[in-house]
Structure formats: structure tokens, C-alpha cells
Design goal:
31% of the residues lie in helices and 22% in strands. The protein has 340 residues and is an alpha/beta fold. It has a six-stranded mixed beta sheet with strand order 3-4-5-6-7-8, with no helix packed on it. A six-stranded mixed beta sheet has the order 9-10-11-12-15-16. It has a two-stranded antiparallel ribbon with strand order 1-2. It is globular, with a radius of gyration of 20 Å.
Length: 340
């Protein structure tokens, strides 16, 4: 009954958010087409598709896409980052091993005091961890981008992968960041107004982020493709931190951000002529709203790169992650459990 009630509420919220902005300004195009439910005791996600795959939203928006990670995911990643077993964490924090195991398996019965002790041992932001435990992680208003942003959300396994098109509002061409898990899905969520891609930028070479590249090239192989040094993909121009690329009004600055994988780039997109407008950070699997990517290459370098972004980029920078909803540097500096 509780699951049915939660599902109904989430569907209503999505339908309300899609319909409420039909007459909004042509500023930010946002694909809202997924809600996430966890089956009790199982790491399973159910995807619900409301009628509107893409909605035109007003200048200020709060996104309704589900978070990539819940409390259990964050605890699991943090334990691996710290090299702690569940028993070791339980001993250090004074929390029953069974309660930690249940939380990792999405059956959270931890008290606020226990979560605070876990946060202290794992060196996590207690405020953000408490918010995740209550399924109320704060998401910010997204405002002020000097271009149109088209998030393209595609199912992959039990999760959702994001790609993004950045384009001049009212224009018919743009820049594509990542390609999703396959070309068929990419076409299904493609913004109808975009007829041409001027360039493709890859964050890293995982299937859910580059699986659509081959089909995209088969359909139109003229656009240049850029990616991180050592990504191993054919006909990809490798980019390190050696300045910025310019495409029309857009400037794309490359940041090497290894940690999740050895070959991983993030990209900062801005319009230099509008210098006071927020920039966009396409972060791949470096940082998410409320979490970080798995440190399959190096935990230390992943955290070091996140801290570098938190210091170097303005608060107003919008983060477009490889999974989960849009967020901002300011929001993640305040609440992300790993930014501590």
C-alpha cells in the first residue's frame, strides 16, 4: 500500500511539473520522463514514463528527476573509499552491523544519532547524509544559463544515464555531451528542434555514456568527436587541459578529472560574451546530486578533483551529471555527503 501511494504521488508530481510549464519561456528544455521506486529489500528500479518526454520550462526550475544514489549507495561507496568493512564501521561508530547492512540494502532503520556517528567515522557531511536518510535531499533552483540545455535521460540496466545537448535557444544546432547507452534510445529522447550536432564530447568510455556513438556516426559521421586522453575509442580526438575550444558563441573548457575511471574529462561550457551568466559543468561520473561516482580507478584522485571544482568554480555553476538530476556547485558544497 505504501509503495502504491508513493508511486501515485510521484506520478502526480511529474505530471504537474510537466503540465505547469507548457507556456513557460523557451529557456531551459528539460526531459522529465522517469520516476524511481525501490522494491523493498532489493536493488531494483522501476521507470514510469509520463506523457510529456520533454517540457519547456521557465527561467527558474527545480528538477524532478530521481537521485542516482540513496543512503545505502552512499554508505556503501563511503565504506569502500575508507577501506572499512561493515563490521569495522559498526565497531567504530557504535552502530549494529545488521542496521548498517539493512541500510545498504535500502531498509533504513537508522536513528539520526546513529547516522551522525556514521557520518563522523566515514568523514561525510552529516547534514546531507541526514537528508538522504529521510529521502529529502535538497535540490536547487536552476536559473540563468545563457543557452538552452536539453537533458537526455536513457535507461541503462537498473539505472538512468544522462546525455546533454547545449544549444542556442531557438537554434537548430548544438553540442552533444555523451551519447547514452545506445543510438535507438538517443533518438527517442532527441530534441526535435536540434537538426545538427557541431561536435560530440565524451566524458569517459563506459557503455552507458558512449554506447550511442557508433549509431550516431553511422547516421552522420561529419561531426568531430572529443574525449579524454587514453579513452581508447577510435577516431576520438584526445583532449587534456590545454585551453578551450570555441564553437560559435560557446566556449568549452576541458578539465581532466580521473578517479571514477583513469580517462575521465569534465567540461565547463560558457558564453564568453555574457561573462556574468552561470556556466555549465558536465561532470560525467565525477559528482552527482547527493553523491559521487564509484572510485573504480582512484578514490583519492576522485575526491581531490571534486574539491578542486568546489574551490575553482563559482557557486552559480550548474552541474549536469552523468546520472541523476541537475544541481549546482553551491548546493553540493552545502549538502553533498562527500564534500566535507
Amino acid at each position: 500500500m505504501a509503495a502504491m501511494k508513493a508511486r501515485a504521488q510521484h506520478e502526480m508530481a511529474l505530471e504537474k511539473s510537466a503540465g505547469a510549464f507548457e507556456n513557460g519561456k523557451d529557456f531551459l528544455l528539460l526531459g522529465i520522463h522517469l520516476a524511481t521506486l525501490r522494491a523493498r529489500g532489493k536493488k531494483t528500479k522501476t521507470f514510469l514514463l509520463p506523457p510529456h518526454l520533454v517540457s519547456t520550462l521557465p527561467t527558474v526550475v527545480i528538477e524532478y528527476a530521481p537521485l542516482e544514489d540513496e543512503l545505502g549507495d552512499v554508505l556503501d561507496k563511503a565504506m569502500r573509499h575508507r577501506g572499512l568493512s561493515g563490521q569495522e564501521l559498526a565497531d567504530k561508530a557504535g552502530v549494529a552491523t545488521e542496521k548498517i547492512r539493512d541500510a545498504v540494502d535500502y531498509r533504513n532503520d537508522l536513528s539520526k544519532e546513529e547516522i551522525s556517528r556514521l557520518a563522523s567515522v566515514l568523514m561525510l557531511n552529516d547534514v546531507g547524509l541526514q537528508a538522504l536518510s529521510q529521502s529529502h535531499y535538497p535540490l536547487p533552483e536552476i536559473a540563468g544559463l545563457p543557452f538552452c540545455l536539453h537533458p537526455l535521460r536513457m535507461a541503462h540496466g537498473i539505472g538512468v544515464a544522462n546525455a546533454y545537448v547545449v544549444a542556442k535557444c531557438g537554434g537548430t544546432s548544438g553540442l552533444l555531451f555523451d551519447t547514452g547507452p545506445d543510438y535507438a534510445q538517443l533518438r527517442r529522447v532527441w530534441p526535435k528542434t536540434i537538426k545538427r550536432i557541431d561536435a560530440v564530447f565524451l566524458t569517459h568510455a563506459e557503455t552507458e555514456h558512449i554506447g550511442g556513438l557508433a549509431g550516431l556516426r553511422a547516421a552522420d559521421g561529419r561531426m568531430p568527436v572529443f574525449g579524454p586522453i587514453g579513452c581508447g575509442e577510435d577516431r576520438v580526438t584526445a583532449l587534456g587541459e590545454s585551453g578551450a575550444l570555441t564553437f560559435g558563441n560557446f566556449e568549452v573548457r576541458v578539465l581532466q578529472t580521473p578517479g571514477h575511471s583513469e580517462a575521465h574529462n569534465s567540461y565547463v561550457i560558457r558564453v564568453p560574451k555574457i561573462s556574468d551568466a552561470p556556466a555549465l559543468l558536465v561532470s560525467g561520473d565525477l559528482i552527482f546530486a547527493g553523491s559521487v561516482g564509484g572510485a573504480f580507478y582512484c578514490h583519492r584522485r576522485l575526491i581531490d578533483n571534486i574539491r578542486r571544482l568546489m574551490i575553482d568554480l563559482p557557486d552559480t555553476t550548474v552541474i549536469a551529471p552523468g546520472h541523476g538530476p541537475l544541481t549546482t556547485i553551491k548546493n553540493e558544497r552545502m549538502f553533498n555527503p562527500f564534500v566535507f
